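anyone seen this seq b4? input:
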Amino acid sequence: MKVLLRLLCVITLLIPSLEADKCEEHEEKITLVSPAHEIDARSCPLITSVHKEPITWYKNDSTTPVSTERESRIHQHKDKLWFVPAEVEDSGAYYCSVRNSTYCLKIKIVAEFVKHEPNLCYNERTVFTQRLLTAGDGQLVCPYLDFLKDENNELPQVHWYKDCKPLLLDNVNFAGVTNKLIITNVNTAHGGHYMCHASYTHLGKQYRVTRAIKLITLEKSRNTKPEIVSPANETMEVVLGSWLQLICNVTGRISNYVYWKWNGSMISTYTPVLEEDFIIVENPLNRRRSTVLARLNISAVESKFFLHPFTCLAKNTEGISTAYIQLIHPGKQESFI
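predicted toks r here
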């Protein structure tokens, strides 16, 4: 009888462990292609505010975690996966996971690292496309640099190139502000390939970071209503319960009134789950034009948020512009009219 009781106790203790071993798996839909021979860091798509357990990284679904030794070329530091530097052979699948005694969740991401094309300072597969309206000022953003921020939350100096040649930042035609390139009076001649360069020091050694941007210029409409750069009446895949930030980007006068609505109501109706904040990015070349960012922070995506789109509204004395984002479940092709 005692032996039977002991066996039951052991089985009872093993049940949570067995449940945790059944890891729920998701896959990141976007494969980020980056230049080889540069330092790189990847973030885990898991929301740390929801999953309090530490994140662990694995390569190719191995049972052995990635090293946490900072001297290792590929290692985990805090929640990020670092490549110091990345090499072509590092391309492949990586998994980040969280687990406790009752559950296990892991997400697969695919990283790809490529060499520059012959006679070019970039590879076309690493290019980010950005669009600017003509007949006004605009800005390019050097993307995916947050991992380079120092202890003061500041980015390193960014150098800009066009068609692989240094770009003169004369504060008349071009100006550099943190990770942004301000372009005065955008015209079709500004189209082309831009490169932004930065450097990062790891254990006393400097490594470069480059991003390639293809600028496409768009003819500016005569309409003087506010111009919503993004969103663009689109859908976004999100996981139920996750944290999410939606950004409405309006370029124009500082007097533009920009705000979000959901299901016909102001966001203040749904606090504290939904919170708005606003950022104004002044243009140092023309202070009469600015970028207004209305950020909508969703602390946890609820099922009702899939029923109606989130709509951004931008007003001025000439009229009102609107654009929406419809949240959809991962892997589902839902339509919104």
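The first strand starts at residue 24 and ends at 27. DSSP finds one helix and 25 strands in the chain. kinda curious what u guys think
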